[in-house]
Amino acid sequence: MKISELKEFQKVKRPSRDQYGNRIYEEVEFEKLYDPSETSLNRRFFSKLMDIAFAIAVQISLSKIGLIETSSLWFDLGILLVLIILTSSLMEWTIGSSFGKLLFNLEVVNDYCKSLSLKRSMYKNIFSFGIIFVLFFSHVTVGFSGFYTKWLKKRSIYVIRRTERTVIKKMMQHKYNISEE
After folding, report:
1. 26, 59, 60, 142: which has the fewest C-beta neighbours closer than 10 Å?
2. Each residue of 23-57: pLDDT tens digit?
3. pLDDT tens, 91-110?
């Protein structure tokens, strides 16, 4: 079973009228797809900022020991971009979270609730920094966060809270809905 196939039941109270015209609320239960994705864009944004800070620290360390020589601002920014993508991708591939996601207790998983492959992780990080580049150099910011979230879902990539992983695994093994416990 995959995360994209998991379903949950949700109960809502819908207003209606009784036979005397009084407003009453009927409880209606319906089935919907389970979405474990982290909805707080603040947590995801600040985790990305921490990834950038981590890559800056790596770049400074590498230049201090003489592995990277700084020559110009654009060269340094290019090296920084490569380091951000590499460090984030390698960490997501090996432990499931980049440095910033570890700090904010987030994890990146595929449709089978496993860590991403290195290739998919690099693809995701290149695309996410492409979006950051567009947001930074353009005035069009409305709708890009929703676009990125939809892009991740379409590729069966989920950014979840670390505690959510056990719930997902349990649901996948038992093929039951979360609200039926």
Report:
1. 142
2. 999 898 888 888 888 777 788 888 888 999 999 99
3. 999 999 999 999 999 999 99
Tokens found for residue 114: 């496993």
Q: Which residues of 142-179 are buried (b: 16+ CB within 10 A; e: fewer)?
A: eeeeeebbeebeeeebbbbbeebbebbeebbeeeebbe
Phi first, then psi, for residue 115 (nearest 5°) are -60, 150
Q: Which two tokens stand for residue 3?
A: 């995360």
Find tokens 């991403």 and name the residue.
116
CA distances from 69 to 26, 56, 84, 110 (A): 69, 14, 18, 37
What residues does each domain of the chain span?
3-35, 41-172
Of the chain, the percentage scoring pLDDT greater than 90 comes to 26
